[in-house]
Amino acid sequence: MASVCKKKNSPDLIESHSHHGFVGVDNVLEITVVTADGDHIIANAYRNEDLFWALRGGGGGTWGVVTSVTYQTHPSTSFSSAFLLANSTNVNSTQNLLTEIIRLTPSLVEQGYGGYGVGAPGQILFFLMSPNVTAEQTQATFSPLFEFAISQPGLSVENYTLLYQDFSQFYELLSTDGLVGIPSEISSWLLPKDVIETDRPEELASELLKLSDFGYL
Amino acid sequence: MGSHVTLVFTFGAGVQWSEAYEAVSQHNRVIVGGISPRGSVGAAGGWLAGGGHSLIAPNYGLGM
Which residue of chain B has the CA closest to A13? Predict the structure, then answer.
């Protein structure tokens, strides 16, 4: 399982958005794939490089049948997380909360938070976590946002911050229930930093809320 | 261009993310992967073909 890997910088379909010392790191190192002509081949940075490049982001069902993927790993670490769920009967309050989330986002990116969020006029939800901050720092970062949400009329708010000792502790809690497979059609944008760092976050919030539902990563 | 030694995992098609995460954590490592309830999505498949976003990608890079 342990392996010696020689790595080089290879072009990616889109540039990695990592920014904490792992810039440009490719987590996948090798893929084996059966191509349309029936060959079972190895694709990596040195063999079938074009196919290796295409398989990493080029969409499913296009290049062949993948039979295995080799990923690199990273040292286990704790993760400090924050959760917010706000159900809303007041669209102005929803927009005000989303405005504050947008205002906070550049700082969250700087602190290494990643996660998932969804929103609509009737609901804002996010779960974020970072390996770079303490539980106290997460509390300090999110408390003002949580207090703002609670202060808004028409919002019913649940929130918490929690420290996970490692990724698997988080994952075990996540994996207890829920459905897989949602009949949704998804499209996406990469929003440039200058769009998020707008001096008019309320306008960005307003535009996002015009979508039927939106998600953010 | 450089070289380094790293611990890697190879997952065959059909291995689900929940199984992948469990195997990696037993070696006190973490891997960039996808999230779904019960973890029943394949680890060697379409997640990567879409570029491979993970909630830890901001620190460790995309899956690709």
Answer: B51
Inter-chain CB proximity A171 and B18 less than 8 Å: yes
Q: Which amino acid is at A115?
A: G
Residues of A in contact with B47 (CB under 8 A): none
Q: Do B44 and A77 touch (CB under 8 A)?
A: no
What's the confidence (pLDDT) of residue A21? 37
Decide: helix, strand or coil at residue B60.
Answer: helix
Give per-residue pLDDT as tens, A109-125: 899 999 888 889 999 99
CA–CA distance, A180 with A159 (Å, rounded to integer): 24
pTM over 0.90: no
How far CA A70 is from CA of A2, A172, A192, A209, B20, in Å, comes to: 12, 23, 31, 40, 11
- Domain hosting B29: range is 17-51
CATH of the domain spanning A79-176+187-216: 3.30.70.100
B46 within domain boundaries: yes
Asked if the Cβ–Cβ distance from A73 to B7 is below 8 Å, we say: yes
How high is the ipTM of this complex?
A: 0.88
Best of A31, A63, A72 to disrupt the B interface by mutation (most B CBs within 10 Å)? A72
| Secondary structure (3-state) at B30 | strand
Residues 6+ apart with CB under 8 A from A184: none
- Alpha carbon distance B39, A165 (integer Å): 19
**Any chain B CB within 8 A of the CB of A2?**
yes
Q: In total, how many domains does chain B have? A: 1
Kindly list the residues from chain A whose CB atom is less than 8 angstroms away from the CB atom of residue B23: none
